[in-house]
Amino acid sequence: MDVRYNVISGDSHLDLAPERWTARVPETWRHLAPRRITFSGGGEGIEVEGKTPYALGLAVTGKPYQEHRLDGVSYEGSPGTGPPEQRIREQDMDGVDAEVMFTSWKGGATDTEGGAAVLHAYNEFLGEEYAAAYPDRLLAMGLLPKTGVDAAIAEMEYCQRVGLKGVTLFSFPNGNGLPLPEDDRFWQAALDLNVPLTIHIGVSGRLGEPLYQYPREPANIDILGHGSDPIGVLSRFGTGHPKNMIQLIFAGVFERFPGLRFWQAETMIGWVPYGLEQLDDIWERSRYWAADYFGLEAPPKPPSAYIRQHVVWGFLRDPFGVTVRH
Length: 326
Description:
Number of domains: 1
CATH superfamily: Metal-dependent hydrolases
Largest sheet: 5 strands, parallel
Helix content: 25-40%
Number of helices: 10
Strand content: 5-15%
Distance between the termini: 33 Å
Low-confidence stretches: none
Number of strands: 11
CATH architecture: Alpha-Beta Barrel
Shape: globular
Order of helices and strands: EEEEHEHEEHEHEHHHEHHEH
Strand order of the largest sheet: 7-8-9-10-11
Mean pLDDT: 92
C-alpha cells in the first residue's frame, strides 16, 4: 500500500489482550507469559510473574478524561485494544495516517532465556499478524531481550525480516543500564541493517547499577559529596531524559558511529533548549574534577552538539515546546 503521510503519531501505545498472541510462546516458557486479570473494580489488565500487575486504562485514549480509570477498563470494546481493522478505523477518525506503536507491556524478565522466548513470540505476532495487516500504517516497534549483545542483534535481524519498522531498547544492548564496549557490534549492525532505534521514555538499569564505567574510581569515594557522579550531574536539568544519550556521548559511541540516531518518545520537548544549555554549562563547570577524580575524558564537541545531531524527542501535549521547537 502506497501511503502519502501527512500526520504520524510518533508515540502510540499498543494494548492487546495477551491471549491473542501468547499461544505462540513455547510451552516450556508459557508460565512466564502475561495473563489477563480482572481487578476488584471490574477493569482488566495483565499480570506477569514477579512483576506488579499492569492495569489497562490510562494509556488508552478515545475516552473523555472523566472516564479514565486507574483500576483498568475492558479489553473488549475499548478504543485502541481491538484488531488491526479497528485500529485503522480509529486512525481515520483521528486524521492520523500511521502510528509508531510501543507496547505498554515491558516484556517481563527478558534477561532470562524464558523471558526472551516470550518476547520473541510477541515480536512474531506483531510481524506476522498484527502489523502485517497494514504494514504502512501500523508501525509497531519490535522488542529486544536483555540477554546480551548477540541475542539483541539476532532479535533485531528477525524483526527486520518479518517487516517491523524499528526496535525499542529497554536496556543497552549488553543487557544493562550502562553502555559497554561490546555494544559496538550492535550499533554497527543497526546501521548496516538500517533499522531505526527507539527508546520509550528511557533505558533503565538494575537497582544500584552505576551509570557509567569510569576509567577510575576515586580512592576517597566515601567523602565525596552529593551529586558527585559526573553523568548524573550532567543530566539533572534535563528532567532526566538526556541521561542515556549523555552516557553514549562520553562512551564515544557517537564519535565512532556518526550515522547513529535515536527516536526517544514520550519525553516532552519544552525542556530541550534549557536542558541543553544547562548541559554544556554544567560540563564546563564539572569537566576538571570529573577528569581529576574519575578520569573522564572530554568529548571533542560540546555535549549538546551530539544530542542535537543524534536524537529526536517525542511529546504528548506540549504547546510551549512546539512554540520554541526551533
